[in-house]
Amino acid sequence: MNGIWYYAIAFVVIWVVAIVFKKYLEGYGVEVTFPVLMWKTQRLRGFIDKIANLSKRFWKWFMNIGIVISVIFMVIMAITLVYSLTMITTTPSVSLLLPGVDVPGSPIFIPFFYGFVALATVIIVHEFSHGILARVENVSLKSIGLLLFAILPGAFVEPDEEDMENISKPGKLRIYAAGSMGNLSLAAIALVLMMVCSAFIVPACFHEDGIEIDRIVSGSPAEGYLKSGMVIKSINNHSITDSESYVNSVSYLKPNSIVTVGTDQGNIEFKGSVNPNNKSLGYMGVQAQKHYSLNDGFDNQPFSPIMWILIQLPQLFMWIALLNFAVGTFNLLPMKPLDGGHIFETLLSYVCSDMILKAIVTFVSYLMAMIIIISLVYSFMI
């Protein structure tokens, strides 16, 4: 069953329960206003204050650098988004990322468990970073909480509007930049941890032993022929011994050509199709991963099961890094209500009158939104 059905089922169950028990839930700070389900609390404000008070000087210094980095990414993301229109017919650059779901037009499939954990880190780090810098700038926090927009989870920190109006423009910029800087910082940390695990922990305990099929894309040419768990030995007589040889072999596939895949369960032949993200390449619809075996001395030991858990760490850190980077940079697009839109608006206020400022911000926001919508719609059509 396609992962989207699990989201649909969860959507129905959650909202039926929320509506039926609305009065009971409201007693615990839950607001039920379809399509938004929101839980507010004040319990974590003390924790945020403690983090903010560790060194306000450090947080301001760090976020001053964050403002520069945010502006650089804001420009890069805006240019990249506009330029993506030139490649929309061959390689759509904008797509939804839902853990466990095959999203049409998306070149990335996010495993549900890794994606769920990674998105949790994205949400928590982003909002807590905003809260920490708000307190550094002496902005009161009304509440902290979790929300559900239809079926999409989120979190929020609610600053006092009057306090926000009274702080300096640099202070506002630091608060607006904090969320994405928190995500980018975590992405960098996760990337380092992934490299350490991949370079030291995994090689010490495992050796690469071919390529294993992780999953078959629903509706793809390989569906019904290949299946998860198979170990690929060759593709069109090109021997597969590791990830590099697999990538090279796949790059030789031609659109709509016959593909012969040698596996540990025999040779399997089927007709490929056109790669949905690059029409010049062939496509099987296979999501593969490295196939590992334990090194001598680590197999058949009481601790062997633990080793198989450790080997999952590089992939977990990879998704944490990828999603934090993707969401953090996307959030810096110069469009409201994203943080990048607020940064853009605050920077313009240094040189523009309120009337011109609002006109520019509104135009750019609508332009960015239209490009995103067009790209998303087109990705579902190809």
Write a brief caption for the model.
The protein is of the alpha+beta class. It has 12 helices and 12 strands.
What does this structure look like?
By secondary structure, this protein is of the alpha+beta class. The chain has two domains: 3-196 and 321-381, no CATH class; 208-303, Pdz3 Domain, CATH 2.30.42. The protein has twelve helices and twelve strands. The strands form three sheets. Strands 5, 6, 7, 8, 9 and 12 form a six-stranded antiparallel sheet that branches. A four-stranded antiparallel sheet has the order 1-2-3-4. A hairpin with a 2-residue loop joins strand 8 (258-263) and strand 9. It is globular, with a radius of gyration of 24 Å. The mean pLDDT is 85.
